[in-house]
Amino acid sequence: MSGRRRLTQGAVALALAAFAAVPALSEIKSGTEFLSPDMRRQQADETRNPAFFWVEQGRELFSRKPTPDGQACVSCHADPQQSLRGAATHYPQVDAATAKLLNLEGRIEQCRVERQGQPAFGYESPELLAMTAYLGSLSRGLPVEVKTDGAARPYYEAGKAFFERRQGQLNLSCQQCHDGLVGQKLRGDTVSHGAGTGYPAYRLEWNDVGSLHRRLRACSLGVRATQFDYGSPEYLALELYLAGRAKGLPVETPGMRR
Ligand code: HEC
Ligand code: HEC
C-alpha cells in the first residue's frame, strides 16, 4: 500500500479533477487486472475459488428434472459444454419475441417458466445464481460479443446515459469512478473499469456469490443514490452498456472479489 494514494470519500472530488481523462475503449481492462496477485491466483484455481461450488450446483440443477415426468434443462440442451458454450457472451440481448432486453438470468428464467413450466427461480436465489454461474463458466475465455446496434441501440444509449449521469448525495457518475479513478485506491479496493465480466462472482465482503446487479446496487449505495431492483430496466441497460465497453474481453465467470 505504501506510496499509493489512499482515497477517502471526501477526497474523491479532488482526485477527479486530476484524472478527468476518459480512456479509449480499447484500454478497458477486466476486473481481474486490478486484483492482488494472490486473489488472482485464487480466482483461477477451481479448488480455491469458492464460486466453483455454485458452478457445480448449477451443473447438477441443469440435469435435474423439476418433477418426475418434467423435462430437465439438459433434455432440450444436450451436451451443454458444446451447445451452450459461448451463449453467455451474447447477453444482454433483445428478445425477438418480446422486444425486451434480457440478460442471462432473464433468459434462464424464461426457459424455466415457459419451457419447463415451473415457477421462476427468482433473482438472487441460490438456484438462479448457480445456474447463471454454471452457464457463464461454459463461456470462460471467450470474448464478450454483445450487440449494441439495431434493436439494442436504445437500451445501449440508455445505459450510457445512466453511466454518465451524476447521482446520489455524493453527486458522482459511474464514469467519474470507473474511467476517472481507475487504478486508484478507494476503501481498500483498486478502482477498475467496471467491466462486469466475472459475474456472478464470489465476494469476500458478501461471503457469498452475487450477481452483477448486486454489485451495481452496492455502487449505487456507495454514492447514496437510488438502488434499483434486481433485473430492473435501469440495471439491464447499464449491464448492456458495460458489456459493450467490455467487448472483446474474455468472460471470467465465476470471478472472485474482495
Ligand atoms: C422444452 C425444451 C427446453 C427446456 C426444458 C429448456 N430450454 Fe432453454 N431453450 C430452449 C429453446 C427452444 C431455446 C431457444 C433456442 C434458440 O433459438 O436460441 C432455448 C434457449 C435457451 C438459452 C439461450 C441460448 C442462447 O444461445 O442464447 C439458455 C441460456 C437456456 N435456454 C437455458 C435453459 C435452462 C437453464 C433451462 C432449465 C432451467 C432450459 N433452458 C430449459 C428449449 C428449452
Ligand atoms: C465512488 C466511486 C464509484 C462510483 C461512483 C461507482 N463505483 Fe462501481 N465500483 C467502485 C469500486 C471501488 C469498486 C470495487 C473495485 C472495482 O472492481 O472497481 C466498484 C466495482 C464495480 C463493478 C465490479 C467490477 C468487477 O470486476 O468486480 C462494476 C461492474 C461497477 N462498479 C459498476 C458501476 C456502475 C455501473 C456505477 C454507476 C451506477 C458505479 N459502479 C459507480 C467505485 C465506484
UniProtKB/TrEMBL annotation:
It is an enzyme of class 2 (transferase). GO terms for biological process: sulfur oxidation. Its cofactor is heme. SUPFAM superfamilies: Cytochrome c. Keywords: Electron transport, Heme, Iron, Metal-binding, Periplasm, Signal, Transferase, Transport. Heme c 2 binds at C174, C177, H178, C219. NCBIfam families: thiosulf_SoxA (TIGR04484). Heterodimer of SoxA and SoxX. This is SoxAX cytochrome complex subunit A. It comes from Bosea vaviloviae. The lineage of its organism: Bacteria, Pseudomonadati, Pseudomonadota, Alphaproteobacteria, Hyphomicrobiales.
